UniProtKB/TrEMBL annotation:
It comes from the Bacteria. Keywords: Membrane, Transmembrane, Transmembrane helix. This is YqaA family protein. Residues 52-154 form the VTT domain. The chain crosses the membrane at residues 52-78, 105-129, 135-159, 171-191. It holds the Pfam family VTT_dom. PANTHER family: ALKALINE PHOSPHATASE LIKE PROTEIN, DEDA FAMILY PROTEIN. The keyword Membrane applies. The keyword ATP-binding does not apply.
Amino acid sequence: MLARLYNWTMALSAGPRALWALAAVAFAESSVFPIPPDILMIPMILAQRRRAFLIATVATIASVLGGLAGYVIGAFFYDQVGQPVLEALGKAHSMEEFNTRFNGLGFWAVLVAGLTPFPFKVITIMSGWTGMPLGTFLVTSIVARGLRFYIVSALLWRFGEPIRHFIERRLALVFTLFVAALIGGFLAVRFL
């Protein structure tokens, strides 16, 4: 089953609408969607290595725009949208305490969340809710998401075929590690 899913994702990633799908996922992931854009980005780069940096650019732009949507949700629609998203992640109960700590960390919170598997949407919503200066949020989001996506793209561009062969030979292990990292990010949200 994993092999079929992998082959389907590889075929989708080489298709004519792959960049649009990546942009939609990257945008949504930064504000409300739980699945990171890496799921599409990695096979897209493996399928078309010469487009690695275009793919990173699309992911970065869409992710930052989605982060702005998350910021707006936090700033203006926290009760209607932001709080239910954070409740689903188990973070709504500690909002006041987090608000105080978050404003002290601001730049670093956005940078760390943008670079790691930590769900970026939590930070984008919190940035709007706590009133982080929009300029700080934007610059940090661009740096963090750009670094994350360009590093992944550069590694896949440089070492694409060996990585692709490794993934194809050890698909179950790679999938397990990816799911563990994803779950780890959600657990970090729940318990931090």
